[in-house]
Amino acid sequence: MRALAxxxxxxxxxxxIADGAVVLDDEGRIHAVGRAAELGADERFPNAxxxxxxxxxxxxxxYATYAGFGDGLSFAPWIGMxxxxxxxxxxxxxxASARLGVAxxxxxxxxxxxxxxxxxxxxxxxxALGLRAIVYLEVFGGADAVERLFEPARERIEGSLSExxxxxxxxxxxxxxxxxxxxxxxxxxxxxxxxxSESADEAAYVHxxxxxxxxxxxLLVPPLGGSGIRALAERGLLGDRLLAVHCVTxxxxxxxxxxxxxxxxxxxxxxxxxxxxxxAPLGKLRAAGVRLAIATDSPASTPSxxxxxxxxxxxxxxxxxxxxxxxxxxxxxxxxATLGGARALGIESEVGSLVPGKWADLTVLSLDGSPFDPVExxxxxxxxxxxxxxxxxxxxxxxxxxxxxxxxxxxxTRAGRRAxxxxxx
Length: 425
Known about the structure:
The protein has 425 residues and is an alpha/beta fold. The protein folds into 2 domains: 86 residues, Urease, subunit C, domain 1 (Roll), CATH 2.30.40.10; 292 residues, TIM Barrel, CATH 3.20.20. The protein is 36% helix and 22% strand. It has 16 helices and 15 strands. It has a 7-stranded mixed β-sheet. A 4-stranded parallel β-sheet has the order 5-6-7-8, with helices on both faces. A 4-stranded parallel β-sheet has the order 9-10-11-12. The longest helix is centred in the N-terminal third of the chain and has 17 residues.
């Protein structure tokens, strides 16, 4: 047993604890949470907060080196440019980018990701660096993609899978995947993630093949004749194993369908804003009881894997959309990036809050010298003042997988920079 103590402990399930401590058992699980005066302190972090490890429910860590490419392009030419540049990389480059992305997650206080992986490199990167993950292997096309794409990728990464690094499948989106492939993917019994209702351009193409994507029809699957959500619902393909990413262009009926079928939604506000897709109706989704998480998406469409920055943007955009500063509080946002993320991934019994019996996945955040020190409300201090530079340590199953100023991370950065350089004009 060992006890970690700080000025504040934020359990998420339960009120913040001043001068708190978390006791870790020898198996890497949480034994107790409470006051340091009662539990002791084998290691103390002054001017700091201990909180549950952040859960980034939707990422693409293989694209950690893609930041800024094509900024300002509309979605169709933007995706085309990324496909062309990605083709310049070999397997070693992709793994280097994935390892850098995993390292950046840990440096940002993230202990669990739900990652959509094109090449499968996420799995060995997470296994090597100790990040908890569900790795959703991406598939495209018709039902044969399970045999053609998924099974070979699963065989490649089999040795990296474990209780900590789990397998999922990601039928990419209704414009790149047929209903038959959705059905085949869901039939595997694995966690499933898909991109749904990201933009108005997507909605137009999926509905009737019109809009800016019409010239790309030969690269896409045939239109569904309605929205992706309605089409999946009509075919009985919505369910509680499905994680829907984005859900920006959803109406009230579609929100009701998501809620009725217990589909989880990953909200990615920076990506949606940067690509000009819009602002998801987070308030309506929450009111309907949809399982929600806040996630970063890909560094190709956002500046970084910094989930603290994602929380702030989510909070500000929601308040602006609703013209109401109380529509999303700091505590709400933190919940969505911890226990909400765990619920979206279906692993809330294991991670997402500081509760005895759960894995000791912890983030230790310094607030020394921040505008919020001395701290009045630790949730406000974390959400409005948190950043990767303030993360002192990130623990997964009780083991420190990141400590500030470790030299290891500089080596990963150098390898990632080499991969990025191959994609530059």
